[in-house]
Amino acid sequence: MQSAFDTIINTYDYETCKEIVRHGCQSGVCSEYIYTRDTIEFFTKYPDEITSYIKDVLGVEALKDVFDKNAADLDMYMNDLTWTFIELVAMHVVDDYEDAVSDLKDTSEEYYYYEPGMALSNA
Predict the structure, then answer these.
(1) Three-state secondary structure string covering 42-65
(2) Contacts with 49 (C-beta within 8 Å, 6 or more apart), sequence order
(3) Using the 8-state DSSP alphabet, how is residue 25 labeled?
(4) Alpha-carbon span 44 to 65, nearest angstrom
(5) Interhelix angle for 4-11 vs 47-58, to 10°?
(6) Coil, helix or strand for 71?
(7) What pLDDT sits at residue 99?
(8) What CA–CA distance (Å, rounded) separates 78 from 123?
(9) 18: which residues sit within 8 A by CB, 6+ positions away?
(10) For labeling, which of 18, 99, 103, 122 is most exposed (least CB within 10 Å)?
(11) How many other CB atoms are there within 10 angstroms of residue 120's CB atom?
């Protein structure tokens, strides 16, 4: 079985992840998980991974805050945790992509000096 993290990465491309980061899942941009039944199904499939990821990134207080915000309504709690998870994964995708692009720009500015028989080195 594919992990929750991989499921989201394989569902949304970089541009969609940027939109998720900008507007949140609540806006409807995460098309596969708009409806509560879809978010609950996703959460039910990966409860440990979702809650652990959120706890690792935001802390245990985030889980408590979402529960309190939803007045202990379990369906809405699962919905909001799924959306929070998707938004965090989208942030990860965007950050990784932008870091990689930045690294490529830095690398493209380096020049190399090579003479036959020598190892490549920065000049």
Answers:
(1) HHHHCHHHHHHHHHHHHCHHHHHH
(2) 3, 4, 5
(3) G
(4) 20
(5) 80
(6) coil
(7) 73
(8) 55
(9) 90, 94
(10) 122
(11) 8
Two structure tokens written together for 92: 């990860």
Average pLDDT (83-104) is 86
Structure tokens given for 54: 């959120």
pLDDT at 115 over 80: no
Kindly tell me if the per-residue pLDDT of 111 is higher than 80.
Answer: no
Q: If you count DSSP H runs as helices and E runs as strands, how many of each does the chain have, helices first?
A: 6, 2
Structure tokens at 106: 């830095």
Give the Cα separation of 113 and 69 in Å (integer). 60
Contact call for residues 43 and 78 (beta carbons, < 8 A): yes
| Confidence (pLDDT) at 97 | 79
The Cβ-side half-sphere exposure at 8, using a 13 Å CA radius, reads 27
Look up residue 35 and give its DSSP letter. S
Contact 91, 9 (CB under 8 A): no
pLDDT of residue 117: 53
Q: Are 39 and 66 in contact (CB under 8 A)?
A: no
